[in-house]
Amino acid sequence: MGRGRYPARLYVTAPPPEIAARYYRSWPAKELYHTPEHFPPVSAEGLFGYNAPLTLEFGCATGEYLCALAAAQSSSCFVGIDIVAKPLYRAVERAVAGNLSNILFIHADARLIYQRIPTAALHSIILHFPPPLLRNRQRNQLLVSPQLLECAARTLVPGGYLSFLTDHSALFALMRELLPAFPALRATPVSVEELAVFESHYHRRWAARGRTISGLRIERVMGDRRE
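The structure corresponding to this sequence follows.
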């Protein structure tokens, strides 16, 4: 994933079936692309069986940040998505250790998940420290993209928001460049302290290296939905 996206040594194993049934899903890209209807909608009702505010994190890695949110907000639901499986095994370990009942992790390509999220199903989206992937051959893999913002404009409830943090100035500039094409979204530059509940592993890592961290709260504007 680039720039030390995951810990160099991560000694984990797949969760046993009884734990996986509670916390872990694997959605193969080929099946998700060709037969998306075979997968449940990414909503609180579809994944947890009840209605509640739902937060979705793209690129959740080992789940440190999302598990902290789930522990602090027991009346909400949380779903973490990552394209790499091993970090999610560690995320499941965190959820088990915290005895969390309101969190789920999905091994999948986030870009294929967009189509499975119903309109106005999300209270918030988290995109913190995504890999920049700025080589030409990697550009189509960027999570910061028109497709992401189109998804946010459609799936966030009015007043819901996308929380975006990055230590990469070019990625921050790209997000700012893309936003004007989405009038249903309003971006407000905010301090890192306002956006981050606590400093995750990657937050601490890049801050310790002296990198400037920039943040945006990208809110779904009331009454401006374009279906």
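The chain has a mean pLDDT of 88.
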